[in-house]
Amino acid sequence: MDNLKGLTIKKFSEGLRDKEFSATEVTKSLFDYIDSKDKEIKAFLSLHKDDALARAGEVDAALASGEKLSSLAGVPIAIKDNMLIEGSIATGGSKILKDYKSSYDATVIAKLKENKAVFLGKTNLDEFAMGSSTENSAFQITRNPHDVSRVPGGSSGGSAAAVASDMAVAALGSDTGGSIREPASFCGVVGMKPTYGAVSRYGLMAMASSLDQIGPFGKTVEDAAILFKAIAGYDSKDATSFQTDYGDELTNPSLADIKNLTVGIPEEYFVEGLDKEVGEAIDKVIAEIKNLGLKVKPVSLPHTKHALSVYYIIMPAEVSTNLSRLDGIRYGTREAAKNLTDLYYEDKGAGFGPEVKRRIILGTFVLSAGYYEAYYAKAQKVRRLIKEDFENVFKSGVDVILTPVAPTPAFKIGEKTDNPLHMYLSDIFTIPLNLAGLPGISIPVKGREAKLPIGFQLIGRPWREADILGLGQVYERA
Amino acid sequence: MSYLNKNMDLKVDYVAKLARIKLTPEEEAKFSEDLNKILEHFKELQSLNTDKIKPLTGGTDLKNTLRQDGEKIREADGSKLQKSFPDEEKGFLKVPPVFE
Which pTM value belongs to this model? Predict the structure, then answer.
C-alpha cells in the first residue's frame, strides 16, 4: 500500500467506508512498514501484531454486515507504554517493570475498544514519563524522524515519532509538564494536553497526580479532536475526572465563532533564551491569525518565571509518593534480599534509572520534616499565583493564549543528558499549564522551509478545548 | 539529624535512606552536585511574599467526585493479579521475612 503517508483518521475512515482498502490491509501494511522503518526510529517497545490483526478483522466483518461504525473503527493507534492494555506487557520505560503484564484495561483503552480502534503496540518513553527527550528510557533511544541525530522530545517521544514517521495514524501520550506538547513540537505533529480532569487516568502509571493528563497525538488538529472526544469524560475509577458536555464544536468548529475569539500574547514567553528561529516562527503564526480576522493583544503572566521552581518541587514530591509502590512486593522485578527492608533498597537501586532516582531523592527531601514549609508549602502558594495569572488574563476578555511550545527546535541526542537543569528548561513554556490545570495544544507552524519543525502552543480556558482545537483547525485549513 | 551538611548542602546518602533506595557511590556524588544546583535555583522563590496566599493543593479547585460508598465486586479476575506477583505460594503473595 502506498497511501500510508499522511494517512489521517479522517482519510482512513473515508477510505474504509468507500472500500478503497480494508482495515486488515492497512494494519498489515503498517506492520510491514514498521518492521523496516522502526529499525531506524526505535519508537516502539512492543508490537501487538496478532491482537491488532484480529481487531482489524472484526472491523472488516462488522463493516461487511452493514454495522454503523465510529470514525475511530479500525484506526491503527500507538499507545505510550505507561498505559495498561489487559494481557500485554506495560513497562513504563523502566527495567523494574520489564516483564509486567497488565491485568486490566486503562479507561482510555476501554473507551477506544468500544470505538473498535486497533492498537499497533506500545511506544517508548522516558522512564515513568520523567524526561524531555526519551533518552531516559531503560530500553532504547528513539530518534527524531526529521533528523535521526536528534531527540524526538519527551517523555512521549515514541508516540510522537511513530505518528510523525507514519508508522501510526494517531497515538496516545501523557503530559505532566509538557510530555505531549514538546515532542509534538519537535516531531511536527499535533499533540494536546486536555484540562485537568477531562480524561480518566485509571490505568495510567501515576507520576505526579495533580499534574498528569492523558491526551491525543494526531497528524492534524481535526484528528486530535476526534481522538480526544473519544477518550474524554467522567469515570468513577478516577475521582479527579469530571463530566463536561463536549459537543460537535470540538470536531466541527464554526468559523464565525472562532473569528470572534481574542488571542493574548504573553510578553513573559518571549524572553532571552528563546531561539531566534522559534521567535520568527511564532511571529508568522501571529500574523496569520490576525489575517484570519481575530483580535490579538499583548497580555502579562507575571509569575511565569517561577513556574520551573514550583514544578520541580511539586512534581518530585508527588513522584516520590507515587513511586513508593514500586518496591518489589506485589509486581515488577524482585531482587534477592535477606529481609524486607533490604528488598526495598535492592529493588529500587537495581530497578530505577538515574533520573527517577534523582527525582525521588529530591521529592523525599522537599517533603521531609523541617524543609516542607520552605519548599513544598511555598511552591503550593506560588502555584496559586501562577494559576491566578491565567485567570486574570481570561477575565480580561482573552479567550486563547498563544506562546511557543519549547525554547528551541529538537536538540541533539546526548546534548543535555549531563545537565538536568538544562534539560528541565526545555519545558519552561509548557509547565505553567499543568500547574494551572489548563488545556494546551501544540500545532506545527505551517509554511516553513527549515528541516526541523517548530510548534506553537494555544492555551484555553478550563474545559474550553473547543476554542484551541477550533482555532487550530481553522489555522490548518487556511 | 539534619538533611544538610554544614555548608547547607543536601546530604544525599541520608535522604536516600529515607527513600529506601540503594545508590552507588558514583550516583551519590553526581546527585549531590545536581541536586544542590537545583536547590540553589529554588532560592529565587524566597523573593516572593506569599504570607496571605492560600496553597493550591491539587490540579484544580474542583472537589473530588467520589462514588457512593458500598460493596463492589472487583471486575478484574483475581488470578490475573496473582500472575503479576514476583513470588507466590499456593496463590498467596510471598515476601521476604520482616525480621531475620
Answer: 0.96
* CA B47 vs CA A303, A306, A364, A378, B50: distances in Å: 12, 10, 24, 11, 9
Cell 473530588 belongs to residue: B64
d(CA A56, CA A69): 13
Backbone dihedral angles phi then psi of residue B75, each to the nearest 5 degrees: -70, -40
Residues of B in contact with A350 (CB under 8 A): 22
Catalytic residue numbers of A read 80, 155, 179
pLDDT digit string, tens, across residues A119-138 = 999 999 999 999 999 999 99
Q: What is this model's ipTM? A: 0.88
Give the pLDDT score at B1. 44
Compute the CA torsion angle B32, A308, B62, A384 (nearest 10 deg): 110
Place of cell 492523558: A214
What is residue A122's three-state secondary structure?
strand
d(CA A127, CA A96): 10
| Dist. CA A237–CA B16, nearest whole Å | 33
> Before A155, cis peptide (omega within 30)?
yes
- Collapsing DSSP to helix, strand or coil, A348 comes out as helix
* B73 contact A CB<8A: no
Answer yes or no: is pLDDT of A27 > 90.
yes
Q: Do A334 and B87 touch (CB under 8 A)?
A: yes
Q: Does B52 touch chain A (CB under 8 A)?
A: no
Backbone angles phi and psi of A460, in degrees to 5:
-115, 170
All residues of chain A having their beta carbon less than 8 Å from the beta carbon of residue B62 are: 197, 240, 242
- pLDDT value of residue A98: 95
Tell me, what's the pLDDT at A2?
Answer: 67
C-alpha to C-alpha distance for B93 and B81, rounded to whole angstroms: 10
Q: Hey, is the C-beta of A464 within 8 angstroms of any chain B C-beta? A: no
> CA of A209 to nearest chain B CA: how many angstroms apart?
8
Tens-place pLDDT, residues A234-270: 999 999 998 888 889 999 999 999 999 999 999 999 9
Q: Are B20 and A341 a contacting pair, CB within 8 Å?
A: yes
Average pLDDT over residues A94-121: 96
Grid coordinates representing A417? Answer: 543528558
pLDDT tens digits along A285-320: 999 999 999 999 999 999 999 999 999 999 999 999
> Which chain B residues have a beta carbon less than 8 Å from that of A368?
3, 15, 18
Q: Chain A contact for B1, CB < 8 A? A: no
